[in-house]
Amino acid sequence: MKVFTAAQIYKADTFTIEKQQITSDALMERAATQIFNWMHVRMQGAPVKIHLFCGIGNNGGDGIALARHLFEHGYDIAVYVVKYSDKRSKDFLTNLDRLKDRKIWPIYMDADSDLPEIHPNDIIVDAIFGIGLNRTPDAWVAKIIQHLNTSKAFILSVDIPSGLFTDSVPEDKEAVIKANYVLSFQVPKLVFFLPETGIYVEQWEVLDIGLDAEFLMNEKTDFELISKNEVLQFYRPRTKYSHKGTYGHALIVGGSYGKMGAVILTSRAALKAGSGLVTAYVPECGYAILQTAIPEVMVLTNGKEAIEAIEFDMKPTVIGLGIGMGIHDKTVKALEHFLKANKLPLVLDADALNILSKNQDQMDFIPENSILTPHPKELERLVGKWKDDFEKLEKVRQFTDKRKVVIVVKGAHTITFFEGRGYINTTGNPGMATAGSGDALTGIITGLIAQGYSSLQAAIFGVYIHGKSGDISVENTGYQALIASDIIEGIGSAFLDLFKVPEERPDTSEKDG
Ligand SMILES: NC(=O)C1=CN([C@@H]2O[C@H](COP(=O)(O)OP(=O)(O)OC[C@H]3O[C@@H](n4cnc5c(N)ncnc54)[C@H](O)[C@@H]3O)[C@@H](O)[C@H]2O)[C@@H](O)CC1
Ligand SMILES: Nc1ncnc2c1ncn2[C@@H]1O[C@H](COP(=O)(O)OP(=O)(O)O)[C@@H](O)[C@H]1O
Ligand SMILES: [K+]
């Protein structure tokens, strides 16, 4: 699913209005009707107090139109208009009149208004600001937002949590609604997925308001959301007359005294992801460990307690490099020699990234289309410090452009970057913040490249499978007890899940009642 910028959403609006020959008011009515249906299906007329906080722009207009639908279906509502500006939008005013026609009188709020009492069991609809927010809300509006945030009531945000910009992080962190649920029109927003701004969105869902399908399909975006549908498009089925040679040979280079487990995890994950053959390249102290832990994996050794040279007499399809490798002087030299001679695609992780960060001149020897999988600290060493999430994304984009590599920015929503585009993952959970979970990911991605997936596909698909496996495994373990080995065990279930038919969505068509 594409992630549009605010400018692109406004463009889609205009395009749709012209093409479908409808008014902007009709589009607002669609939006409000969709939200009403969503609520009505879940609430079934329940006598819960619903407080609708509406701004004076189109987001507020959505809220006012929603209030009318809720009223007409017998819900107990209170409508507040937060008058943060005199420039009220046309469609807001139209809907305000419709509300007044039904003898509903909103409570107007300005800097001097008292804050209404809100019971923890009430519901708040947040329609103060939408994607039109262009400066930090005034202090008195921020006070209202804080009041709602501390109310303990369930907050349903219309389109985007009020106070959240679409293209920058908030200056005043207290002036943003912390939404329990966001109903986002047509497309999700990038800020739902970044560490500094995603914290305002507990759950989100997209509501289809019928923006022009052709426009949505043709418009190019900088970001795409990756779910099952997207990865299924490049899934490669196995063929009947294939053999292990068909599925490649992954070489996993890494390990040092005390860190051999990392190589076990990566090698095992590469096998589980489907690599035909896997060889681990480790220092001698890892030989017995590897051979005992995973019988399916072949082992080559070099150096005693750390790798001193990377030389082998075999032809791997792909090399995963750096896990648990350490940064011993001899290992650093070995990597430099290896990189100068190597032509194979690489998946670089952990200490390989740390070494390269300190020796940026060696970056020139990284083959194009290689994949780098840094966690936040490794990324900072690689691209330098950033002031906020947006600068981070820009730095990564520039790095991938310059080096022609894929960068997998790991996190709650891992984002894979290539050729100026970011692919946002939707699987995974906090249980995966555990030792060795990144090693498992490196193995999965390496195993996929071995089988013939392109670097970009392997990175996107690998990240998806890794997260999905974590999601399936956590059902049995809970967050705390999930460990990297569980993620590797779950890889098979994650592949099987690709072909499960999704459960039917709840019926959101309008019902009387
Ligand atoms: N295609 C879509 O997504 C549709 C969007 N609609 C709604 O339209 C919203 C966007 O509406 P608007 O463009 O009117 O913008 P908003 O309703 O987000 O904001 C209203 C206006 O307030 C002003 N403003 C911004 N920041 C301010 C601040 N800190 N203090 C005071 N004033 C400030 C701006 O001029 C802005 O246009 C969307 O979020 C959505 O809710 C729907 O009505 C219809 C279809
Ligand atoms: N809160 C989270 N939600 C989802 N995934 C997470 C979360 N925290 C970490 N992960 C995932 O777990 C992995 C951690 O990788 P990394 O930090 O390199 O671990 P290690 O170095 O221990 O192997 C990454 O793939 C990351 O996306
Ligand atoms: K809002």
TrEMBL record:
<keyword id="KW-0520">NAD</keyword>
<feature type="binding site">
    <location>
        <begin position="410"/>
        <end position="414"/>
    </location>
    <ligand>
        <name>AMP</name>
    </ligand>
</feature>
<comment type="similarity">
    <text>Belongs to the NnrE/AIBP family.</text>
</comment>
<feature type="binding site">
    <location>
        <position position="162"/>
    </location>
    <ligand>
        <name>K(+)</name>
    </ligand>
</feature>
<comment type="function">
    <text>Catalyzes the epimerization of the S- and R-forms of NAD(P)HX, a damaged form of NAD(P)H that is a result of enzymatic or heat-dependent hydration. This is a prerequisite for the S-specific NAD(P)H-hydrate dehydratase to allow the repair of both epimers of NAD(P)HX.</text>
</comment>
<dbReference type="InterPro" id="IPR004443">
    <property type="entry name" value="YjeF_N_dom"/>
</dbReference>
<protein>
    <recommendedName>
        <fullName>Bifunctional NAD(P)H-hydrate repair enzyme</fullName>
        <ecNumber>4.2.1.136</ecNumber>
        <ecNumber>5.1.99.6</ecNumber>
    </recommendedName>
</protein>
<feature type="binding site">
    <location>
        <position position="438"/>
    </location>
    <ligand>
        <name>AMP</name>
    </ligand>
</feature>
<feature type="binding site">
    <location>
        <position position="59"/>
    </location>
    <ligand>
        <name>K(+)</name>
    </ligand>
</feature>
<dbReference type="InterPro" id="IPR029056">
    <property type="entry name" value="Ribokinase-like"/>
</dbReference>
<dbReference type="Pfam" id="PF01256">
    <property type="entry name" value="Carb_kinase"/>
</dbReference>
<keyword id="KW-0413">Isomerase</keyword>
<dbReference type="InterPro" id="IPR000631">
    <property type="entry name" value="CARKD"/>
</dbReference>
<dbReference type="InterPro" id="IPR030677">
    <property type="entry name" value="Nnr"/>
</dbReference>
<comment type="subunit">
    <text>Homotetramer.</text>
</comment>
<dbReference type="GO" id="GO:0005524">
    <property type="term" value="F:ATP binding"/>
</dbReference>
<dbReference type="Pfam" id="PF03853">
    <property type="entry name" value="YjeF_N"/>
</dbReference>
<keyword id="KW-0547">Nucleotide-binding</keyword>
<keyword id="KW-0456">Lyase</keyword>
<dbReference type="InterPro" id="IPR036652">
    <property type="entry name" value="YjeF_N_dom_sf"/>
</dbReference>
<dbReference type="GO" id="GO:0046872">
    <property type="term" value="F:metal ion binding"/>
</dbReference>
<dbReference type="GO" id="GO:0110051">
    <property type="term" value="P:metabolite repair"/>
</dbReference>
<feature type="binding site">
    <location>
        <position position="159"/>
    </location>
    <ligand>
        <name>(6S)-NADPHX</name>
    </ligand>
</feature>
<feature type="binding site">
    <location>
        <begin position="130"/>
        <end position="136"/>
    </location>
    <ligand>
        <name>(6S)-NADPHX</name>
    </ligand>
</feature>
<keyword id="KW-0521">NADP</keyword>
<keyword id="KW-0630">Potassium</keyword>
<dbReference type="GO" id="GO:0052855">
    <property type="term" value="F:ADP-dependent NAD(P)H-hydrate dehydratase activity"/>
</dbReference>
<feature type="binding site">
    <location>
        <position position="126"/>
    </location>
    <ligand>
        <name>K(+)</name>
    </ligand>
</feature>
<feature type="binding site">
    <location>
        <position position="375"/>
    </location>
    <ligand>
        <name>(6S)-NADPHX</name>
    </ligand>
</feature>
<dbReference type="GO" id="GO:0046496">
    <property type="term" value="P:nicotinamide nucleotide metabolic process"/>
</dbReference>
<feature type="binding site">
    <location>
        <position position="262"/>
    </location>
    <ligand>
        <name>(6S)-NADPHX</name>
    </ligand>
</feature>
<keyword id="KW-0067">ATP-binding</keyword>
<comment type="similarity">
    <text>Belongs to the NnrD/CARKD family.</text>
</comment>
<comment type="function">
    <text>Bifunctional enzyme that catalyzes the epimerization of the S- and R-forms of NAD(P)HX and the dehydration of the S-form of NAD(P)HX at the expense of ADP, which is converted to AMP. This allows the repair of both epimers of NAD(P)HX, a damaged form of NAD(P)H that is a result of enzymatic or heat-dependent hydration.</text>
</comment>
<feature type="domain" description="YjeF C-terminal">
    <location>
        <begin position="227"/>
        <end position="498"/>
    </location>
</feature>
<feature type="binding site">
    <location>
        <position position="324"/>
    </location>
    <ligand>
        <name>(6S)-NADPHX</name>
    </ligand>
</feature>
<keyword id="KW-0479">Metal-binding</keyword>
<feature type="binding site">
    <location>
        <begin position="58"/>
        <end position="62"/>
    </location>
    <ligand>
        <name>(6S)-NADPHX</name>
    </ligand>
</feature>
<feature type="domain" description="YjeF N-terminal">
    <location>
        <begin position="9"/>
        <end position="217"/>
    </location>
</feature>
<keyword id="KW-0511">Multifunctional enzyme</keyword>
<dbReference type="GO" id="GO:0052856">
    <property type="term" value="F:NAD(P)HX epimerase activity"/>
</dbReference>
<feature type="binding site">
    <location>
        <position position="439"/>
    </location>
    <ligand>
        <name>(6S)-NADPHX</name>
    </ligand>
</feature>
